[in-house]
């Protein structure tokens, strides 16, 4: 196993220790970019957790968190999944306690948790056991969940990227139903996937790799819901491990991990991207995003193509040759409503950084990035290269908060990483009406760290 960049969690040797949810303990939070530190507050919501990942807000405002409890040795890859519910009754940004277990015994390596009505969908990416578990919520948020069935993936052996991301929205064509979106990754680092991926259980189909699919979910209120046949939405995606809908426009946004270095695993071959499908084009012709032949070279960029679906390719900033890096994009989330008066409308992206943490313990590739749609620029909102910052893989935006989950604050997701996870809460310090909003100045002018969109170049 190399210490190269991450494109999501990859399977190493299976070694683990079992640790249950631990109490909240005081710890130093990562620091916010100096230009923004006076406008935002970051607090430790919970800590001492086993690889916390994706999160979902429940009806009462409590937080549901997917965790992976290791068997023995400390690895996320040989684990069982649990769902923990946290409350914050006084709204101080610190959880009231260690978390209530509302589901356990799930397949481990939990990577996505999403709710649609009374249904909850949980993606487990444990190697060889990848699945989406469908559960029913109880009558109150603190009730235990009822498992209804699974969607089981049968990825070929040695598949590099499996399935990690979920997104849901109400169906625009079938009243009372929901659309569930999920990704199917690429089998290898730099080649088109040609082997289909069978799925069984609640869905029976053969899926294409390098893709995003959707299904329509119809729930009668009891028993397992029904699922439509999977419909491919996008292709040419190496690993779209973060998917979200723009709350203002309904457009579908997703990241894609760039190709790892072909000769040096620590130096990417192509840049990570943020892409978009306009709301009116979702479900039309299958959108092709070019992997493996059409990409933006890392550091050098390139002029080629004119695909407006590519919003931005993430290069080192301010100087691509030696600037601050961001590698291994994971979950994405749109800025909460209360952030817009400061930042404008845009997307947060969590970057995993090096797969198992940096050998020095400080990872220079794992920031939280904010991309501003209006100025087409981005900033490292929380810069990488900080002690105690591991992998901000999980993001959840609510009306006035951005929750961030760090899989392992010390870096490792195998040896020694269990019980080292944390969740942070980011809130805005609302400026006085007379204050000049950052949006008026523009991110590009204020920070000097802007990176305009980089067009793809084509091989051959």
UniProtKB/TrEMBL annotation:
InterPro entries: 6-blade_b-propeller_TolB-like (IPR011042), Ice-binding_C (IPR013424), Quinoprot_gluc/sorb_DH_b-prop (IPR011041). It comes from the Bacteria. This is PEP-CTERM motif protein.
